[in-house]
Amino acid sequence: MKLFFGEIHHETAILNEEESHHFAKVLRGNEGDLVHVTDGKGNLAQVEITSISKKAVEGKIVDLKVNFEQKNYYLHVAIAPTKTMERLEFFLEKATEIGIDEITFLQTFHSERKNIKIERIEKIVQSATKQSLKAYLPKVNDLTKFNEFIKQDFEGFTKCIAHCEADIERTPLRTVLENNPQKILIMIGPEGDFSRDEIFAAEDHNFTGISLGHQRFRTETAALQAVFAVDWGLK
Q1: Which residues form the Ribosomal RNA small subunit methyltransferase E PUA-like domain (predicted)?
Q2: The pTM is what?
Q3: Is 141 left (phi over 0), alpha (psi -120 to 50) or beta?
Q4: Which position among 2, 70, 143, 152 has the lowest Cβ density within 10 Å, counted as fewest Cβ atoms?
């Protein structure tokens, strides 16, 4: 099925400007075509196109599914961007396909990348959402300094920091998941890992140090490992 982003109202759906252009000019869609539209908030509508103009494509809702394939958990991954953007983009695409709800980019002591293009990131996530036919669009947050991030109020979250310091206490992620947290936040560090000061600072703000296994992973692999583990552990 063709999936588009747009506004979903009581009886009608309106594709956003970019999606309207794609439908009308690229796909050369016509009135009467049946498409699927999501607002990225869990609503998935089957829509019959009734109007095509320069500004917007509109249609009447034939069928509406609310909370389409909603998961029973909320996963927020905070990750230090990799030096090579292709590796980060790979993670974003695959994590969206597997199931992730929120992504924050961290600026840490060992970070190799100090800036990101948030608009490009959002497009990658949107594209992956459409390709995997999901009705929930992950929330993307801009680059945030580590010390500012850990001070935020993540009410109701089980907060974890994944690190490789063997002499600092760590709990296997699978053990954390045995408690069936409804909301979980996992921080993934850069190639040089989090600094010891950062690990201790996170623990002071009630983050639990976790291990993702005996292997030493690249940043994007560690993040994907965490997403897979949560998906399997909390389904």
Answers
A1: 15-61
A2: 0.93
A3: beta
A4: 70
Phi, psi for 202 (deg, rounded to 5): -65, -45
Residue 214, burial from CB neighbour count under 10 angstroms (0-12, 13-18, 19+): exposed
Please report, for residues 13, 38, 100, 154, 203, the alpha-carbon distance to residue 158 in angstroms, rounded to integers and kept in the order given: 37, 29, 15, 9, 12
pLDDT per residue over 57-95, tens digit each? Answer: 999 999 999 999 899 999 999 999 998 889 999 999 999
Strand ranges for the chain from DSSP E: 3-8, 12-15, 34-38, 44-52, 57-65, 74-79, 102-107, 139-145, 158-162, 171-172, 183-188, 208-211
User: Cα(217)–Cα(120) distance, rounded to whole angstroms?
Assistant: 25
The Cα-based distances of 64 to 8, 48, 71, 126 in angstroms read 9, 12, 18, 20
Domain end among 13, 37, 65 = 65
Strand order of the β-sheet with 171-172 is 139-145, 102-107, 74-79, 183-188, 158-162, 208-211, 171-172
Cα separation, 162 vs 41, whole angstroms: 29
Structure tokens at 20: 């309207």
Q: What is the CATH number of the domain that holds 172?
A: 3.40.1280.10
CB atoms closer than 10 angstroms to residue 211: 16
How many residues are listed for the chain in this entry?
Answer: 235
- Domains held by the chain: number: 2
Residue 215 has pLDDT above 90, yes or no: no
Distance (Å, rounded) from C-alpha 146 to C-alpha 136?
A: 27
